[in-house]
Design goal:
about 220 residues, Rossmann fold, 10 helices, about 35% helix, six-stranded parallel beta sheet, globular, alpha/beta
Length: about 220
């Protein structure tokens, strides 16, 4: 299991006002979280003070991530890829651009995201839960989950990690939110609207080991 960072450049390109997120008069943090956790329009395409504020496909934004992951894991035409928590599947679509002939699949708890996903890959997407992946053992050459597993309660986190391990046959990669100090912990608490698993890198390592997860990982920090 190795630490491999594919996401920092994208994460750090966003400017965040942590206190404004907490204190907004119309969408204070509790209200924003209530709306976001419905995983519908408000979460993806509603007001920016709730979550994404319009999650749209931007040419090139995810392609560099797909290219880096494909190169690192040696993805080739005919390989099968699964995104656990695929959202609107922009990254999966860009995998098909970077590696023509690759087979992509995605699963997400949000029916709204699947219904509004990239049309070119939508038929390969399913509404479902990370704790029970509807695929056979060893079905995929690469299984990844980006900014998803920290949204699970502890009693589901172990199940999801074991499922990712089960359906992968070669490569696995997970990226989750974490914190290394009290400032990053406070920023994470202020900014997040769906996170349930608040863990330091050491705690995440415990979860990975306890669940028998053998893949790679990286963390998102709110510096």
């Amino acid at each position: 299991m190795a630490y491999v960072d594919f996401l920092s450049a994208i994460h750090k390109s966003t400017t965040r006002d942590y206190l404004a997120r907490v204190n907004d008069p119309e969408y204070p943090k509790p209200r924003a979280a209530e709306l976001a956790k419905q995983w519908g329009h408000d979460y993806w395409d509603g007001d920016r003070r709730i979550c994404y504020g319009g999650y749209r496909y931007l040419e090139g934004r995810w392609e560099k991530v797909a290219r880096a992951m494909a190169g690192h894991y040696g993805i080739k035409p005919g390989d099968r890829i699964l995104d656990v928590g695929c959202g609107k599947a922009f990254l999966l679509f860009d995998f098909t651009k970077v590696v023509p002939g690759v087979e992509v699949y995605g699963i997400d708890i949000s029916g709204y995201a699947i219904a509004n996903a990239k049309e070119e890959v939508r038929e390969r997407l399913r509404v479902g839960n990370a704790t029970s992946l509807p695929f056979d053992d060893g079905s995929f050459d690469l299984v990844f989950s980006i900014n998803t597993l920290h949204n699970l309660h502890c009693y589901d986190l172990d199940k999801a990690l074991r499922e990712i391990e089960r359906v992968g046959r070669r490569n696995r990669y997970i990226c989750v939110e974490s914190y290394r100090n009290e400032q990053e912990k406070a920023n994470l608490l202020y900014w997040q609207v769906t996170c349930e698993a608040f863990n330091t890198p050491e705690e995440w390592a415990w979860w990975f080991g306890n669940a028998g997860y053998t893949g790679d990982h990286s963390f998102i920090y709110f510096e």
